[in-house]
């Protein structure tokens, strides 16, 4: 399923034996792998920089509210989705191109007792398998770095958002000196899988898709701090040198981290000035 590029992404993230490694990590942290709490899962399921703190910040920025329907695009193992469901009362669909993440993510969600509020769907962000205007909030957290066609991604997100719906994003972008040169990085073992735009081109792509910017913050300094102090690898994660390379890339001006909120405006003028 999917394009060759998407299959390569699935191979990058979908390592064999993931479920067993996560269960072992939970057990050694004193949790019951068959009935973990959402909080106990944080150590293994937040596949982005700055961990659960970044997820909570983004949810606050987005104004995530009870009953809202959320699409977590590239939602991985569902770590952010379970927080949106358990702490903010949202109903979340995780869409991800890595089949193993969908399978293990659904298992972890059922074991944490959230199977009715967080659903998983294996599929592509470039062909979102949902009808127009089906979500109040779209969410991308470190999931666009593997996607070359940003215009198509944001057109798809705009299409599935209801008018007035928001896109919350927390992403790694290229820096003032260009894209990273050191590999592996957490999202890509080689340049072929890494597709970072600088902030100005990312913003232009979002705007072309009809998404209006409500907030945009550079969170690179706090990301660099976190990278300096983070402990060793996660069971679902990349090798430690990938994080060291990300920190070096930030220092070289070749990576930045951004947290932003956009909206699909209630009514948009077409090219003729009518609604
Ligand atoms: C670094 S992980 C982040 C996972 C999750 N957002 C989190 O923060 O815990 C990136 C995720 O994006 C997914 N992804 C990359 N390209 C995708 C695409 N074209 N369609 C759907 N998911 C994609 C990957 O499979 C992976 O699960």
Highlighted features:
275 residues; globular; 7-stranded mixed beta sheet; 10 helices; binds S-adenosylmethionine; single chain; 7 strands; 19% strand; alpha/beta; Rossmann fold
Description:
- The protein is an alpha/beta fold and about 280 residues long.
- It has one domain (about 5-265): Rossmann fold (3-Layer(aba) Sandwich), CATH 3.40.50.150.
- Helix content is about 40%, strand content about 20%.
- The protein has ten helices and seven strands.
- It has helices spanning about 5-15, 20-30, 40-45, 50-60, 80-90, 100-110, 150-160, 200-210, 220-230, 240-250, and strands at about 70-75, 90-95, 120, 135-140, 160-175, 210-220, 255-265.
- Strands 3-2-1-4-5-7-6 form a seven-stranded mixed β-sheet, with helices on both faces.
- Helix 6 links the parallel strand 2 (about 90-95) and strand 3 (about 120).
- Helix 9 (about 220-230) packs antiparallel against helix 10.
- The longest helix is centred in the middle third of the chain and has 13 residues, at about 100-110.
- It is globular.
- The model has no long low-confidence stretch (mean pLDDT about 95).
């Amino acid at each position: 399923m999917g394009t060759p590029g998407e299959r390569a992404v699935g191979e990058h993230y979908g390592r064999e034996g993931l479920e067993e490694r996560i269960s072992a990590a939970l057990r050694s942290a004193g949790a019951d792998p068959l009935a973990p709490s959402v909080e106990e899962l944080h150590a293994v399921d937040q596949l982005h920089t700055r961990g659960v703190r970044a997820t909570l910040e983004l949810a606050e920025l987005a104004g995530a509210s009870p009953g809202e329907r959320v699409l977590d695009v590239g939602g991985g193992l569902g770590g952010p989705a379970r927080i949106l469901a358990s702490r903010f009362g949202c109903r979340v669909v995780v869409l991800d191109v890595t089949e193993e993440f969908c399978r293990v993510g659904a298992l972890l969600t059922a074991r944490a007792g959230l199977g009715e509020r967080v659903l998983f769907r294996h599929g592509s962000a470039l062909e979102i398998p949902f009808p127009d205007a089906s979500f109040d909030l779209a969410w991308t957290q470190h999931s666009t770095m593997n996607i070359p066609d940003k215009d198509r991604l944001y057109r798809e997100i705009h299409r599935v958002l209801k008018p007035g719906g928001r896109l919350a994003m927390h992403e790694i972008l290229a820096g003032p000196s260009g894209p990273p040169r050191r590999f592996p990085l957490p999202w890509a073992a080689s340049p072929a899988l890494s597709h970072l735009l600088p902030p100005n081109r990312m913003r232009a792509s979002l705007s072309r898709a009809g998404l209006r910017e409500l907030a945009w913050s550079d969170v690179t300094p706090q990301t660099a701090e976190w990278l300096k102090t983070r402990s060793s690898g996660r069971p679902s994660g990349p090798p430690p040198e990938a994080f060291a390379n990300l920190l070096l890339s930030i220092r070289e001006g070749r990576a930045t981290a951004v947290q932003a909120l956009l909206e699909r405006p209630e009514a948009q003028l077409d090219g003729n000035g009518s609604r």
